[in-house]
Design goal:
single chain; 424 residues; alpha/beta; Rossmann fold; OB fold (Dihydrolipoamide Acetyltransferase, E2P); 7-stranded mixed β-sheet; 16 strands; binds S-adenosyl-L-homocysteine
């Protein structure tokens, strides 16, 4: 007799982080594939989604909210969808297990070190969140304590005890967030132990990552994703490559060996600093990174006659901007490799790019976020020879802004912790 499938996690319904846990993994993949075909099929053939052999404990970044429950007990976990209530979570099916253990131990230490958790209503208390990041290959562990104030009287003995319990921790950072916004990390930081950054190895390159820089949360699938992106770019060693929305430079640096030069642009200054350090760390002499809006940057460069041969673009879930797409069509690279974490905004942007003279030649979904509804796609766009489409009508952009863009983005959502793949 066939066994009925049960969601493996008891918190599945309360937590809301794993929208597809009611389905066995192969079924989750089928569902994602069908969605990709529905949204992206009109632009070309959609390859079979690449799933994971072991789809559990893949998240190398874990973020827990701290609060008091109704009985005034300290709890740590995730915000219940649409509320300020914290659902206690000690172990999670998709999170790194070391990170989960560190968070539980921190919670158990709080009373002994007279650390109060922050109360959103009264604005009193200290600890708001704990964020843990673990380098997949390096094993280096970063702990970020997000607090309402820089005054931390028991700091020294607290950190000493934490390191005693978890010698694998390589750096501890105090992040100060005294604002009442849903964004987890504040602007100010104080390093309490170690270098304030961790390093990891991805696609045979070393990367330095600081607390506020974006770094993909599923390293196993990221190597597959970037591998596909670089394969699609088919670099010969002669190309000038633009890595737009470059984060800490992961894609550009991975591709740099096959290119003449790589230029990366990114809005987050911390990430740009990391990217510059990463170029140095990998001994590269052909990679440069700059801070700015990707659209403005490419527009400015296109005006000066700069023409990249290949563009990688990896925008946030809201997709690329009108300014960027317009500038891309003006710069007219031979190939663009679009890496997207939302097939809806990808479809919207593909309408513009295909109307502007590009063809989607390869569409490859990769399951970066098993058990959740999210899916990543890498799409190769090649410029058609004909000039007939080059006069594009960007009013299309307006028309094609779907509801997907109107949805709150990850950074704005209170329930972002552990629930959205591109959380910060
Ligand atoms: N390519 C990187 C980062 C992708 S996440 C990687 O794979 O790790 C998207 C990145 O776009 C984030 O680092 C975010 O800070 C950046 N970003 C968001 N809006 C931007 C904009 N308007 N211009 C440039 N970068 C932007």
């Amino acid at each position: 007799m066939e066994e009925t499938y049960r969601p493996p996690c008891a918190l599945y319904k309360k937590c809301g982080g794993c929208q597809l846990q009611h389905l066995p993994y192969p079924e989750q993949l089928r569902r994602k594939q069908a969605r990709e075909i529905a949204l992206l099929g009109p632009f070309g053939h959609v390859e079979d989604i690449i799933g994971m052999a072991d789809p559990t404990h893949y998240r190398n970044k874990v973020c827990a909210a701290f609060a008091l429950d109704q009985k005034k007990r300290i709890v740590s976990g995730v915000y219940q969808p649409g509320s300020h209530r914290v659902v206690p979570v000690d172990e999670c099916l998709i999170e790194d297990e070391t990170a989960d253990r560190i968070i539980v131990d921190i919670r158990n230490m709080l009373r002994d070190f007279k650390i109060q958790v922050f109360d959103e209503r009264s604005g009193r208390g200290f600890l708001r969140h704990v964020l843990v990041r673990r380098g997949f290959r390096s094993g280096e562990v970063m702990v970020v304590l997000v607090a309402s104030s820089p005054v931390f009287p028991t700091q020294k003995p607290f950190v000493r005890k934490l390191l005693e319990l978890h010698p694998e921790i390589t750096t501890v950072i105090l992040n100060i967030n005294d604002r009442c916004t849903p964004v987890v990390l504040g602007e100010r930081e104080k390093i309490l132990h170690g270098p304030g950054v961790i390093e990891d190895v991805l696609c045979a390159h070393r990367f330095r990552i600081s607390p506020r820089s974006f770094y993909q949360v599923n390293p196993v699938q990221t190597e597959i994703l970037y591998g596909k992106a670089v394969e699609f770019a088919a670099l010969s060693g002669r190309e000038t490559v633009l890595d737009a929305y470059c984060g800490v430079g992961t894609i550009g640096i991975t591709a740099s060996g096959g290119a003449k030069q790589v230029i990366g642009v990114e809005l987050n200054r911390d990430a740009v600093k990391d990217a510059i350090a990463n170029a140095r760390l990998n001994g590269l002499k052909n990679a440069w990174f700059t801070a700015g809006d990707a659209g403005e940057y490419l527009q400015g460069m296109a005006k000066e006659g700069f023409r990249p041969d290949v563009v990688f673009l990896d925008p946030p879930r809201s997709g690329s901007s009108e300014a960027f797409l317009k500038a891309l069509l003006k710069a007219a690279p031979d190939r663009a490799v679009y890496i997207s974490c939302d097939p809806e905004t990808l479809a919207r942007d593909l309408k513009i790019l295909t109307a502007g003279g590009y063809r989607a030649q390869k569409i490859q979904p990769v399951d970066m976020f098993p058990y959740t509804e999210h899916v990543e796609t890498v799409c190769l766009l090649s410029k058609l020879d004909t000039k007939q489409h080059t006069e594009i009508d960007l009013r299309m952009y307006e028309k094609n802004v779907t509801n997907a863009e109107k949805k709150p983005t990850a950074g704005k959502s209170r329930t972002m912790c552990r629930k959205t793949p591109d959380c910060m």
